[in-house]
Amino acid sequence: MLADGKNQPPKPSFVSRVLGVLIKAVVLLGFLFVFDKLLPSISEQTQSFVVAKWQQMSLLQQELPTENSLPNPLPDKRLTDTWGAARSQGRSHEGIDIFAERGTPIQSTTQGIVSKVGENNLGGRVVVVVGPGGAGHYYAHLEDYADIAPNDWVNQGDIIGYVGDSGNAKGTPPHVHYGIYINGSAVNPYPLLQKD
Ligand SMILES: [Zn+2]
C-alpha cells in the first residue's frame, strides 16, 4: 500500500500548509490594521456628507414660507412693514428692520442650513440660513454671531446672532435687518411673519 501512491490524494506537506495559513493570517491582519486606521475617518466623512445631502434634499422639498407662518426672529419686538422704503444711492429697502436692545438674541425663523457667517459692506456682520423651499433668510447688522458656522444645521428658534448696528447701520438704533430671498429675488418678509 505504501509503495502504491496512486490511491493517495496529493497532500501538501505539513510545513507548507502551516506557511500558507500563516501568510493568510498576516495578510488578513494587515487588512484589518489598514481598515482600522482608515475606516473611521472615511465613514465619518461619508456619514456627514450623506446627512448634509439628505438635509438639503428634504429642505428643498419643503414648502416655501406662507403668510403668517414664520415666528418673529425677535420675539415680542414690534414688526413694521418698511419694505421698499427709500435707501441711499437709489436703493430700496429689501427687507424689514426690527428694533431691540443691543445684544438681544436673534432666533432663526426656520430650520435650515447656515450658508454664511461673515461680513459685507452694507449688512456688516450677517448670517444667512437656507430654509424650506431653498429660501435664503438674511439677518444683518449683528453685534455678534452665535456659535455657528457654514453648513451647520439650525432648528427654528435657534439663536444665530445678536442685535447690533454693524455695517451701514453704524450709529443708528440697534436692529436686525431681516430679508428673505426666493430664487435669488428679495421678497417682503412682513406678510410672512406672524403678527400677534
Ligand atoms: Zn434694513
What average pLDDT do the residues reach? 91
CATH topology of the domain at 88-192: Glucose Permease (Domain IIA)
CA(first)-CA(last) distance: 103 Å
Shape: elongated
Question: H/E element string?
Answer: HEEEEEEEEE
Low-confidence blocks of residues: none
Total beta strand runs: 9
CATH level-1 class of the domain at 88-192 = Mainly Beta
By secondary-structure content and strand pairing, the structural class works out as: alpha+beta
Strand content: 25-35%
CATH architecture of the domain at 88-192: Distorted Sandwich
**Given the structure, what is the number of helices?**
1
The CATH superfamily name of the domain at 88-192 is: Glucose Permease (Domain IIA)
Rg, rounded, reads 30 Å
Hetero groups: zinc ion
Task: Kindly state the percentage of residues in helix.
Answer: 10-25%
Main beta-sheet strand count, sense and barrel state: 9 strands, antiparallel
